[in-house]
Amino acid sequence: MNVKERIELLRSQLNHHAIKYYVYDQPEISDFEYDAMFDELKKLEEEHPEYDSPTSPTKRVGGMVLEKFEKVTHRNRMGSLDDIFDFDAVRDFVNDMRSKGAESFSVEPKIDGLSVCLHYENGVFTQGATRGDGLVGENVTENLKTIGSIPLHLTSPLPLLEVRGEVYMPKKSFEALNEERELTGEALFANPRNAAAGSLRQLDSSITAKRRLDIFVFNVQEIDGVDYATHTASLEAMSALGFRVIPFIKEAHTADEVIDHINAIGEKRAGLPYDIDGVVIKVNRLSLRPLIGENSGRPKWAVAYKFPPEAKLTKLTDITVQVGRTGVLTPLAVLEPVRLAGTTVRAATLHNIDFIKLKDIRIGDTVEVSKAGDIIPEVRRVELSKRPADSVPYEMPLFCPSCGEPVVRDDEAAVRCTNSSCPAQLQRNLIHFASRDAMNIEGLGPAIIALLIENGLINDPADIYKLRAEDVSGLDRMGEKSAENLIAAIENSKKAGLDRLIYALGIRNIGSKAASSLASEYGDIEALFTATEEDLCGIQDFGEIMAECVVNYFSHPQTRRLIDELKAAGVVTKYERKTVGDKFAGLTFVLTGTLPTMTRDQAEAMIVSLGGKASSSVSKNTSYVLAGEKAGSKLTKAQSLGVPVIDEEEFLRMCGKND
After folding, report:
1. Dihedrals φ, ψ of 167, to 5°?
2. Cα–Cα distance for residue pair 265/150, rounded to 1 Å
3. Predicted confidence band at 649 (pLDDT cuts at 50, 70, 90)?
4. Is 390 helix (H, G, I), strand (E, B) or coil?
5. Model-level pTM greater than 0.90?
6. pLDDT tens digits for 536-557?
7. 3-state SS, residue 633
8. What is the domain range of residue 624?
9. How does pLDDT run across 320-367, given as a tens digit for each residue?
């Protein structure tokens, strides 16, 4: 078997097992076996780029970075549904449709997510787009490819197929994402729907890939080569083609049967691993749809029955305050336990002081509580008639409840503790410091960090580098070998580099890209102690707020002590450019559009390795603009400024690859 045949065999096997795992939940092999095949395919594709394929399973990991989403005009209008809210309206709809010839109805859950259409030609996934306004959406093809339950190849090569589905974030993925965002001091998503929408619209598809999105297909928009008599039959066929179709569909004939299934779905609602906000009722016979028609983009042959939001009254007994990684104080309502949407609720977030004042929430109030997206408990309103006579408006504490230091209100809503040594921030700061994108200390996860803090072994990042194997081996869940592996990982992290170190420090508003810019610009962490806001604002893509945060962080005495201890431990604090030459020394490149054979990250890495710089915006100081297909506004600006524009072939020639 030659290389090409092996690649094609691996792709076929991986596609088969992906459908079994993601669509039918019937895995035939272990994760280890799947990963081994995946790694082999990825290696072969890297060694033989001539066999690259846009539908390879390796494309699901993401990595393409876009400047913006291009607009897509839908071939078939993606209408929205009229909502109904009671069973009388259900009966009216069913009776009206029966008078127009409908004999049966499809009754199915309404997934609370983001509607998209998927387009296939000759069985190959070619494009996916958001609903937008129903007529024009956004091309999110690369992000949709990261969803494992979307087949890149159909099991039958139909000439043309367009289906509509709902992208959603499973409840477990949502909870894990919010836990991660809380640890890193980022704002939490309100509900899975918002999280799914934000994840699908990431310009960097690798971020989407990490968010664990999923999809249910619920309608055939257009198809060539085959006809179906009913909607339910079409979805059975879509399942056979490899799609994950909407679950719990039932064919009903009368209003009573429709209502019975609505109630049955409602009873399952709390236990489902995803959010639903209602039930969709559709005329089943497809030939009737065009005859019944639509009204201003809303089909007359379908309606959405919306579940009433479950809300209950309970007493707010106290307001506590949590301190996040970046020092933000978040108020939390302590509630008398109440059963809501299948779980017992004892607490609810109050977001910030502005939220509390807007709703005039006070300790001792009787409040109405619901679950945002059936996940996060929230206080909807106060029952003023039951307010105690001695109640007083709530005020945020003037001092940090963890360390006792004064707090400040530094923007419109956030109250923050500025003491970077605050104990409440310690665990979250250390988790961030050791995380994959920071110092990447394998084995030093949240549970081990909590254990080390509990035993008094670490109080700041520098203490991590003072640990010895014998300190760790005696702890719960840590044997001698685990301890040795952890110490080895800590030792290895010392060489992570200045860019990762700056990001690991957790400076407010400084992400990994800004950290790389600081490392590249200043070269040594010592230089940041004397950097001014004016100097920092001169860095590409740096603004006043970012500059202020950097200056503020390096002005604290505890930062000076921390850096001195890290240096003494042998942590690299100088920027080491990984170069293989200096062909591009002094040159600045800007990348735009999609390159034929390379990702933008690969091209940027080549530029840096040859001594050049990659920038995100075009200016008169730009040396070259490397433009690919569908280049955007950067190409236009380059042309107006007279900046030389090159394609991938010319770029590779300049790199010495095509000599």
Report:
1. -80, 135
2. 25
3. confident
4. coil
5. no
6. 988 866 888 889 889 988 998 8
7. helix
8. 588-655
9. 998 887 788 989 999 999 988 667 889 998 988 999 999 999 999 999
Same domain (yes/no): 298, 335: no
From 457, 460, 497, 351, select the one nearest 413 (Cα to Cα): 351
Across 365-488, the runs of DSSP E, i.e. the strands, are 366-372, 376-382, 407-409, 415-417
* Number of helices (H), then strands (E), in the chain: 24, 24
| Residue 577 falls inside a structural domain | no
Intra-chain end-to-end CA distance of the chain, in Å: 32
Angle between helical axes of 600-609 and 648-655 (0-180°, round to 10): 30
Number of residues assigned to the chain: 659
Report the alpha-carbon distance of residue 529 to residue 507 in Å, rounded: 13
Q: Report whether 529 contacts 349 (CB < 8 A).
A: no
Active site residue 466: no
Per-residue pLDDT tens for 461-514?
999 999 999 988 888 777 888 889 999 999 999 999 999 999 999 888 888 878
Q: With CA atoms as reference, report the closest residue to 164 among 233, 219, 244.
A: 219
Whether 503 and 477 share a structural domain: no
Structure token digits, residue 453: 């803090």
Q: What angle do CA 500, 566, 540 make, to 5 degrees?
A: 35
- What is the tally of structural domains in the chain? 6
Q: Which CATH number covers residue 10?
A: 1.10.287.610
d(CA 5, CA 44): 11
Residue given tokens 């989407």 in the structure block: 208
Q: Which of 59, 110, 145, 613 is catalytic?
A: 110
Exposed, middle or buried by CB within 10 Å (0-12, 13-18, 19+), for 29? middle
- Residue 258: partners with Cβ closer than 8 Å, 6 or more residues away: 90, 94, 105, 107, 252, 281
Question: Rounded to the nearest 10 degrees, how much is the dihedral formed by the CA atoms of 546, 549, 550, 555?
Answer: 160
